[in-house]
Amino acid sequence: MLNRGYAYTTIISSKDHGQTLLSHLASLYPHSTPQAWQQKLDNREVTVNGITAAGSESLTSRQTLVWNRPPWIEPDTPQHFEVLFEDAHLLAVNKPGGLPTLPGGGFMENTLLCLVQKQTPNANPVHRLGRATSGIVLFAKTPQAAAKLSANWNTPRIQKIYRALAQDVAQHDAYEILTPIGLVPHPRIGSVWAANPSGKPSKSLAKVISRAPSNTPSTTTFEVSLNSGRPHQIRIHLASIGHPLVGDPLYGLTGQPLENLPGLPGDGGYLLHAQFLNFQHPITGEQINLEAALPSGFSSAD
Q1: For 165-183, what is the mean pLDDT?
Q2: Which of the two residues, 205 and 266, has the higher pLDDT score?
Q3: Residue 159 host element (H or E)
Q4: pTM listed for this prediction
């Protein structure tokens, strides 16, 4: 899909005062080299306070920097989703693996948000799932519903249960995982969320659903309940107890990025599914219990 392009807007902060525009762009968007940024500048893609920039300008605080990225071809993604629940306030859908929830990482229009808003323009996601993760995504259709759900999202009032296919055979039937999660270095993108002793407190409860010791390699299927909402929490937590997700290109046995060249957070190859979501309707008070059918990859494990 060739999208419409996008204008990336940032406000220059005091810590960047005095930097040249070219060096600032190269540090702000490290996916491109300074030479590549100079070419974008020469193509008149960048403005500062509305004036086309050359790159040698010295920046000052509170200036508005805009990179007008030309249209680009986005990677293909699944385009279909299943509606699980809908009323005047809420919309819940079953997102397929491989479809980003929100724009980012080279995706702008091939996203669940764009697909949903074509049908329901006032729907906005209360949370997000990773691109490769499938399952329930809840949207709010009114500001009142959004505010109440957001306030309760990482509390016991909203029960979120996932299914995950992990490496190796678990020795215990249940695990309480309290590994803190924070930013650690990543060789390709600077930093990534991972197991970090100085990170934020995090809690997951993992229960064994089945074990497949005869497979090569052997696997365990877990049901995981989240008691906090850190980025990539299930992938990190299961890896931190010695059970990374099968096919996870980013996280290794300790919940840290794999050695050498780990993958990126959005890369797929693993099975993680948001299967159940239970909560009280933010407007009517009704108990809502949602379930998204498991994708086919889990059938061999259960």
Answers
A1: 97
A2: 205
A3: strand 159-167
A4: 0.84
